[in-house]
Amino acid sequence: SMGPTYHVNKIRYVETISKFRSLQELENHGPCIIKGLANSWRCVKEKSWTLSSLRQLYGDKYFFCGATYSQRMGISNNVDEQIMKLSQYLDQHTGKMSQPNNNSAISTDSNVLYLFDPTFEVGTDLLLDYDLPQIFNQYQHDLFGITSQNNSLPFNPNYRWFLLGPNCSGSILHIDPLYSSAWNTLIIGKKLWAIIEPSKDSNNSIDPILQPSGSLLSWFHPDSLNIMVQHINRTRRVYIFEQQPLETVFLPANWAHAVLNVEDSVAITHNMVLPEQFSQVINLLNCELCKELSHIGNPMELTQLRESLVKWMAWNRINGK
Length: 321
Fold this sequence. Notes:
Distance between the termini: 57 Å
Number of helices: 9
Low-confidence stretches: 69-79, 99-109
């Protein structure tokens, strides 16, 4: 086959994260791949996140699964979300050797379930298997740190997920809500990413020409990527790249992204909303309270979230934080 003809920006590799003094500095740097963050994690040293180890450890535990969609922060446009025993999930959905670029393989991904669990810490030791990289360990100052420590709030948005994605599963093009940035560390497998710079006037929505019409596989087909890149590449950066094991993708707020697992993959991802974005989140909660954000919480919960953010910002101003 001819291989891609489109011109894309080269994703930057960051060999040492310590060159960034703050998360905001990393955010300004744009999307990148950070090397080496996971090398000392328990799941890497003990090889406990291979499919066979996970089966042995947690085969009888139930995990959340859903069709190939964006399920972040409770978003699900999809009735197929279900819980399933890990052993059953692995039997039914992994180990299929079809290659995404092989036309005789699965031509649709609608039947591929993606294990995408925001409550993975319940009844497992998975939370002990990885360490928050120092630069991301500022959770007490980010939106989810504040909400998870503040028990008077009626709800905590999901902000971390354990991901087990079979070959051909993934997430359609989407923007993470509430101005959140994310990091995603791959432990086994391979993921193909497409990341698109926000347009100056996008007001946080995705250009209709980029919206997937068919399956995720057809969206990632070189011909459709070509059309997309030609459409936007003159004005905005586009990154299309493969993530390898032990690499961490850092994704700044408001960048649209789609991800295709090209091998059975196991990963961990966290979202964060930096204090620099809080005033924007407050505005968002103001004007879109009832319509756009119903998948994150009900209007009363969102109003309380807004009030707690306003209080938090005022407290920090008074105390010179």
